[in-house]
Amino acid sequence: MTTSNPESKDAANTPAESAPRPSNFIRDIVIEDLKTKKFGDAVIQTRFPPEPNGYLHIGHAKAICLDFNLADEFGGKTNLRFDDTNPEKEEQEYVDSIQNDVRWLGFEWERLCYASDYFDQLYAWAVQLIKAGKAYVDDLTAEEIRQYRGTLTEPGQDSPYRNRSVEENLDLFERMRKGEFPDGSRVLRAKIDMASPNLNMRDPVMYRILHAEHHRTGDKWCIYPMYDYAHGQSDSLEQITHSMCTLEFADHQPLYKWFIEQLGIFPSQQIEFDRLNLTYTLLSKRKLLQLVREKHVSGWDDPRMPTISGIRRRGFTAEGIRNFCAAIGASRTNGSTDIEMLEHFQREDLNKRVSRAMVVMRPLKVVIDNYPEGLQELVEVANNPEDPNAGYRQVPFSREIYIEQDDFREVPPPKYYRLSPGKEVRLRNAYFVTATSVVKDAQGQVVEVHCTYDPASYGGNSPDGRKVKSTIHWVCAKHAIAAEIRLYDKLFTKADPSQLEEGENFTSNLNPNSLEILLDAKLEPMLGLAKAGDRYQFERIGYFCVDPDTMPGNLVFNRTLPLKDSWAKIEKKAGA
RNA sequence: UGGGCGGUAGACUAAUGGUAGGUCAAGUGCCUUUGGAGCACUUCGUCCAGGUUCGAAUCCUGGCCGCCCAGCCA
Questions:
Q1: Which is it for strands A424-427 and A471-472: parallel, antiparallel or unpaired?
Q2: How distant is C1' of B32 from CA of A426, in Å?
Q3: Has A51 been annotated as catalytic?
Q4: Which nucleotide is nearest to A50 (CA to C1')?
Q5: What's A359-480's CATH class?
Q6: β-sheet bridge partners, residue A400
Q7: Model-level ipTM above the cut of 0.90
Q8: Which of A103, A275, A362, A393 is catalytic?
Q9: Mean pLDDT over the full length of chain A
Q10: pLDDT tens string A75-87
């Protein structure tokens, strides 16, 4: 997997201030809290709390934008905190990638924190709860605990170890910490209510024994706090005023409050919002990890992955992602956002900022019979018609050029305006040409088209005001350069990839055509200078960027997104 | 089934008792040296039934539908 971050110094990574700030219910709560001085004169403090057990994805981007923008809008700060309470799943590689991704998205945290920074404090608080008779060591096995927990409709039963003395609990917990007991043999539990209708309150586990090396604390600990015991207190220690998380944690709030109240410490306000779901996309770290491990993709940063590193490598811009997050907002309704929405904000951003280039993906040779042999001209081309400041470049032109196979039809269907025998089109920025004849191979495929050109139409305008129906792109055969072009498509074939038939798992919905590699493309010579991370619009084709796999002599482009194609729509409609 | 949380066009989201608005998608037209971009227009909506009110997407009651919770994961 590549760790390069082609865009870190790129203009596409503008600061986050420009992000729109639409209204949402969380913002309303903050405004209200400020008005009523719920947190006194304290400034708004938020945090983004990922577990370093995988790479960040577009769903995390939504949370990041919410956390950082909200604090920023009201003059507050945001911490980046790693919820690293499970050493068996967490790794430094993930810690590093997460920091890289948050920065790339355009955000800078106030403090870098780790739940593991609080292990000593959390342990001291656990002792305090034991002394107060609010926590106990349980010897039940995991299976027994599950059975004692009851069900959704039936209350649980008290563990036989629930009423141990404070002294015994203190002794046992101390010995758990010292490593006297094997993994899984005992846990520390909060003594709350085994009959609570909220399962989280049925004496939840606070600590488990795990003789595992932690990526930060090494072998200092062999007991680790559960997320539920660590999260609220971590927020409290950082004086987080507004603690945003996803909907599934709503049921945990009473538990967090219970710990905070028992301990008498600063109460943060938790606000839950809906997770992002995107059509044709899976946003589950577990499943994304499976795609990586089973090599359905090349890595976490495979350009088909919805990870930040994947879509970055694909060529997406941070600003486009931020604009998308602003547009989808936040609420408490679970739904699924159309992937087109994400793509729209990428196209919008890329259209403004990237230079155009001419590239022929599937070449068809064109010979201009009345163009002088040996003559070579340069035509002047705008780098970006949307942006006059982007300047101009010279592109070589001569008698033999390549055009797109799709741009010629021997027998044009209705409404097909491109080149066909007897028809005149404009070669972008160059000349008007009219097709005169074709050369076919043994199979009857057109392998070469002959044309004549109008020398008076240099630059693409005819002095007599004659119009053509279409403009096509081209690349001069003599100067064309080669590249590997990777065309990416959706990773899944179903809008809801988790929708399965009998006996399938989600990998059954993988799109077998999500990657197509083109090796015959012809590129205008200027692209030979492109460096990893550079973005272009290949005119009439789509947005592309240079992949970090690029080596001297082997240019590699990723297709970020195709341009919208209204001809494809017409064709589809005609075919249907 | 106990508990929690939700239901505004095909999708996402505003309207905080007073004109149901925006974005995406879809469609039509204009324009165009990218069938791109842009511009204009159009289609389509408050889950249902009652109630309160001059007035309800909003408040109340009762349904219906959906999501989450029975890890020593987060």
A1: parallel
A2: 13
A3: yes
A4: B74
A5: mainly beta
A6: A367
A7: yes
A8: A275
A9: 95
A10: 999 999 999 999 9
